[in-house]
């Protein structure tokens, strides 16, 4: 059987390859989306001090370290029994909003967007951020660069470093925000709101007003009816930092709503021999294979899923665009919310609405009188020994679950990461795109890029997804005094 | 502009933070674009492996190689890019010294799949399926690269020209390096550590330092430190004395958090963990020990240091695969 290999897949975070098998007629017989990497955190974090997890698990992903930092510190709040003061929670959410703005900007302009802005079948050497800048002009390019820059500055000033920040502590945040910094953040947030609106306008002009793109978006090439997952606040509106996890079914009815500590009652993971990445699914629906529909436990956790699973957005401009998106796509209200949109390329649009929401939320928090409160630490007084923390990472619901001994040294670590949620949907989307686009053995580079667009819309991060790794090995370090006497023997038992 | 020198950036076992550190050159990325052609960088551009294979040997002026060597694929790409590059730079802590994922060298491979694919609390795997390097499917055979016993650094795999430390390298230091190439400055001797200082993080730390007399050690969540004063003097295990400078000591200076050691050992030091143990040895305040027996002195030391349960993870957080310990033997 003839096969086509796309290796490595590009404009994403981490490693992946696509194997397409063609039958005698040159049509797609099957298609596999494989993850060839595994690094491993779940096991080597065993033996570590729990409060180090925000810094350690940041290294799962350098694109979204803030998400791991935040899920980790929230799990640590529980493990150390230290509820952070209200100001600390606000500082965290403010920091997290700045991160969402820069992360979604990176995806739209550097990873996913080039397929639309430069064109899906443009020469490969131009389908990238630099091609985008050449196409839209330096002025717009500079807007993108400045947006990333000013938000990374906020991340650096509030979190310590621009990449792999360090300020998260169980029970709070290492440093309060000064009035001077608050003003600067407010300015940044105002510019972010402007940039969010600008990006939505650009999406409207470049994508929605282009009939060929619109046809592509609503075609059946990139369409799957699955369950949707996202975190919602007490009004069932999208929230990235905290809330309940809500799952809606393919028709938009609420299927489950639970606090993250109950995740294991709702999510199970399946293993396949041909990829290192596991396939999570809804335990209470069950695994029926890589298929969509009401009877398949496959769910999706993306910007579009978050919007599908929520009743709306918590900020006014984002809400306007939320309404516009569903109305444009002909969705009607049912069950208290818009019927879910299953056209996967719409995820790009949803991502920009989230960018605008993050910007507006950042502005609200920058103007909150409590944001400069010095009261950002609670010193833990007891170790509970267990914690589950979750946030919405840009790429989906992220859950960290830790169990420790009485000293807060980790005994068990389980991580369900944003992208991993979407392993099954990504596999299905890539396969469907290959089936619909390839026929009679006719394959071009541009066409294969359109197959890649099926994973790219999920903004996957396989560095994150392939975090797992276990094993045990004894280590002994002897510390001796100047006379050679043994002062301390440190060992990690095998 | 076909004459621009070609460069590549590749990730082996990595997190993508190194790519972000390059993207965070911000407006200077346009100067990089003006001076070079980025032909391979899976995160950002659409060059494929076959495009690299088609290059002549040495056709890439520079490859910034980040990530450690964990699988057959990582190893193969390291050899391929070594062959195609004039200058191969181990970019970032993973390629240089193994970094945080290198902590897995405390663990053997044997239990590996068991914990991830069989024992994990959310796993449902009654048939006990684990990933295989080759799987027969109805249409043919699917392959994934073998997973190695341990994490290796880039220099433990291929010949490396320069080392650029940091997790990730700070963008302003990356720019200094790239700008010096654009300016056509003479290259330093092979093996040089570039984009960093030669001293320690303490040299760049603005906190007030006095005599170090540590009466007890604290974990970060246990204490609100005086933000004007040296964190180590207050008993927080700050890796500053055992870590190379160049980062502007941002963790203590910006966030009042201790250095965790991501730039690796300072010049002249082979083993970062051993260096930190030596620093602690001189800084612990045991009081008057002249009348005590050896056992009593040891007990007093134990009293001071027992607050930290995981020295292995704290002192070798970034440097285990490249250290004297190396991890699994």
Shape summary of chain B: globular
* Intertermini distance of chain B: 51 Å
Rg value of chain B: 23 Å
| CATH superfamily placement of the largest domain in chain B | NADH:ubiquinone oxidoreductase-like, 20kDa subunit
Explain what this protein looks like in three dimensions.
The complex is a heterodimer of chains A (494) and B (329). Chain A has 2 domains: 2-35 and 438-460 and 462-493, no CATH class; 41-436, Cytochrome-c3 Hydrogenase, chain B (Orthogonal Bundle). Mean pLDDT of chain A is 91; it is low at 468-483 and 487-494. Chain A is built from 16 helices and 18 strands. The N and C termini of chain A lie far apart (47 Å). Helices cover 40% and strands 18% of the residues of chain A. Chain A has helices at residues 53-58, 65-79, 86-111, 114-117, 129-136, 138-159, 179-208, 211-218, 263-266, 303-309, 316-328, 347-366, 418-421, 423-437, 445-456, 462-465, and strands at residues 2-6, 17-22, 28-34, 168-169, 172-173, 227-232, 244-248, 254-258, 267-270, 279-282, 299-300, 333-334, 337-338, 386-393, 396-404, 410-416, 475-480, 486-492. In chain B, the strands form 3 sheets. Chain B has a 5-stranded parallel sheet with strand order 2-1-3-5-9. In chain B, strands 4-8 form a two-stranded antiparallel sheet. Chain B folds into 2 domains: 1-195, NADH:ubiquinone oxidoreductase-like, 20kDa subunit (Rossmann fold, 3-Layer(aba) Sandwich); 201-315, no CATH class. Helices cover 29% and strands 13% of the residues of chain B. Chain B contains 12 helices and 9 strands. Chains A and B meet through strand 3, helix 3, helix 5, helix 6 and strand 9 of A and helix 1, helix 2, helix 6, helix 9 and helix 10 of B.
